[in-house]
Amino acid sequence: MDHNKQQETTHKPVKRKEMSRRQFLSYTLGGAGAFMAGGAILPMIRFAVDPILQKKEKAGFVKVIEESKVTNEPTEVKFKIHQVDGWYESDPKLAAWITKDESGKIFALSPVCKHLGCMVSWGGEEAPNEYHCPCHGARYTKDGKNLKVAPKPLDEYEVKTENGWVYLGPIDPNSRV
Amino acid sequence: MAHKHDPNEKIVFIGDSRVRKRDYSNVTPPDYTAFPGKSEAFIPNFLLKEWMVGVVVLIGFLVLVIAEPAPLGYPADPLNSAFIPMPDWYFLFLYQLLKYPYASGDFIVLGVLGLSGIPFIALLLAPFLDTGKERRFYRRPIASSLMIVSLVAVVYLTWVSWAHYQHELEATGTVPEHIEREIKAEEAVAKGLPRPIPGKEKIPAMVAADDPAFTETMTQAACIACHGAELEGGGGPALRGIGDVLSKDEIVQTITNGKGDGAMPAFKENLSAEQIDQIATWLSKQKAEAAE
Amino acid sequence: MFKNMYNWIDERLDITPMWRDIADHEVPEHVNPAHHFSAFVYCFGGLTFFITVIQILSGMFLTMYYVPDIINAYYSVDYLQHQVAFGAIVRGMHHWGASLVIVMMFLHTLRVFFTGSYKAPREMNWVVGMLIFFVMLGLGFTGYLLPWDNKAYYATKVGLEIAGAVPFLGDYIKELMNGGTIVGAQTLTRFFAIHVFFLPGALLALLAGHFFMIRKQGISGPL
User: Fold this and answer.
1) Taking CB atoms and an 8 Å cutoff, what residues of chain B touch A36?
2) C-alpha distances in Å from residue A160, one per residue of A62, A66, A79, C17, C150
3) Rounded to an integer, what distance in angstroms lies between the CA atom of residue B121 and that of residue B128?
4) CA angle at C176 for the pair C173 and C179, rounded to the nearest 5°
5) Lowest-pLDDT range of A2-6, A9-13, B43-47, B249-253
6) Which has fewest Cβ within 10 Å: A171, B31, B93, C98?
């Protein structure tokens, strides 16, 4: 350690209270450098982080199925939404499992497994009366409650019924469990 | 590697010679005592002066960038024969040079290799061509005069090329695409419409598509050959939403007498006035509002 | 704390001499604009580098939004310019910076030429500098195509016709640059790769050589 001290003292031979000319120049240099770097880079940073600052548009509701066709047994529906992703506009397909509960209320679950994002499906030989995920065997009840493997219940679509048709909206966390 | 322990040596590595303390004590920096005047340290003294210039340049640059947005025209269309090609300004001199008869056509090889290639190679090898000791430009007349002549030529060619481009724009009545586009965007925004994106304009749906004016008369008259089976456009413009652009009378006028020096043919021979009126009535109903 | 960290690294890698050499070398008076105003002509090299750094940075940021595909290229440029905050500024920097870098480099070249600074022993540095000039022109040419608007498309077509006029090899050069027989999808990806990876890589290597040589040889003396 002593040789470092020795080196420092050789660079700063006299220690006075006021700023030395060299120090002043160094600070000005730092200021000019910071100005140049900031002037050039700050607009670029704002440009890069724009996606997190852009206003999120809530997805609208999409007409999917007639109300009368929804039963106590979950039914799979597939529907298209209009998605604007930057310069790319597309109509990706989404799926939902729609069920009517005991009180007659209609709810729709998203089939995206909360474990690692595979697609779950209802019933089948392996898991009658449960949602079953083929990837790691996660199971959910009819209400989407997680029984095995998955850490959270299945997400739910916002549901609206109008003139005998069911409309699905944005995806929210499960409210039934 | 001697293993004597020198107290001034910063680190002593034992058994590994990959990282070695080098002795800088006898490396003398380039000697500037031969140069007159005061010299100063690079950091911070000299670099500060350079960066002051840098700050001024940056401010000027940002002002330019904010004042003048980068141009963007319409999407590339290989069939657009009206477009006047224009390289970036620093290639203009080359572009202009290759227009001259002794640099193009049968002489293109001379133009590309002789007039462009050789000067560039000469520039690349300048220190080996101009080998004299003298550095002042007025003491080496050949090199300097060649450079000055080339500079004048480059400036002149660039200017001629640019003037010619401006002249052509004027002669053909063309507004450069990026300017036209900005104007259109401003107009649309002023009207409260969304900013139009060229090539992605939404064509309104057809109104009353089962009208006999369309299904019979227009099909017979082969309107769809140019305007598209769904009137979505093709060789001719899209006709959906035409009611927003032209009035019924204007449509009658267009069908009867044609438009654009026969680009749209006159149909007064092939269609009766009654048929034209029928079509025009139907077309004037094609409004974006009605289509929704 | 920084001092301790620095010392820790310095003990192991002995970095002090590297930056001390750059920081402490003396700069003579005849290139110092504070002493002679006319010495501002010696700033053009540094300014070229400054604008080049801006070009590299803005280019890196632009590729966050740009796609080199003939269907989407134009729309991604349109999107980043009009829909993304500061998009017009960042694209403007890259667009105008391209011109400015050519101007600065041109002035720097003229300064070196008319002060005869390329003479022995600095011949190699001149050659490297001219190669940088050509790389920059190449960057300008390939970058011009990327927005895929009419101006880009037709300028590239003309440029490739000129390349095609080179005797014997012309057709091969043209087809190679086209990535086929037409200016199209493959041309765009090719130009993108050249503009974003190949030429900048070459540029950085050449710049390193340029700076190494000027540090080694020192600045040329006064006239």
Assistant:
1) 51, 54-55, 58
2) 9, 12, 15, 72, 48
3) 11
4) 150
5) A2-6
6) B31
Is the pLDDT reported for residue B1 higher than 50?
no
Categorize the per-residue pLDDT at C9 as very low, low, confident or very high, splitting at 50, 70 and 90: very high
Three-state secondary structure call for residue A160? strand
ipTM of the complex: 0.94
Amino acid at B177: E
User: In angstroms, what separates the C-alpha of C157 from chain B's closest C-alpha?
Assistant: 9
Collect all residues of chain B within an 8 Å Cβ-Cβ radius of residue A25. 44-45, 48
Q: What's A91's DSSP letter?
A: -
Chain A contacts of B54, Cβ < 8 Å? 32, 36
Determine the Cα–Cα distance for residues C69 and C67; give it in Å rounded to an integer. 6
**Where does residue C143 rank: exposed (0-12), middle (13-18), buried (19+ CB within 10 A)?**
buried
Q: Picking from B7-21, C1-15, C171-185, which range would have the lowest pLDDT averaged per residue?
A: B7-21
Name, of A85-99, C11-25, C93-107, the range with top average pLDDT. C93-107
Residue A2 has pLDDT above 50, yes or no: no
Q: Check CB contact of B63 with chain A, cutoff 8 Å.
A: no
- Using the Cβ of A84 and the Cβ atoms of chain B, whether some distance falls under 8 Å is answered with no
Query: What are all long-range contacts of A52-58, with beta carbons under 8 Å and residues at least 24 apart?
Result: A53/C85, A58/A169, A58/A170
Residues in chain B: 292
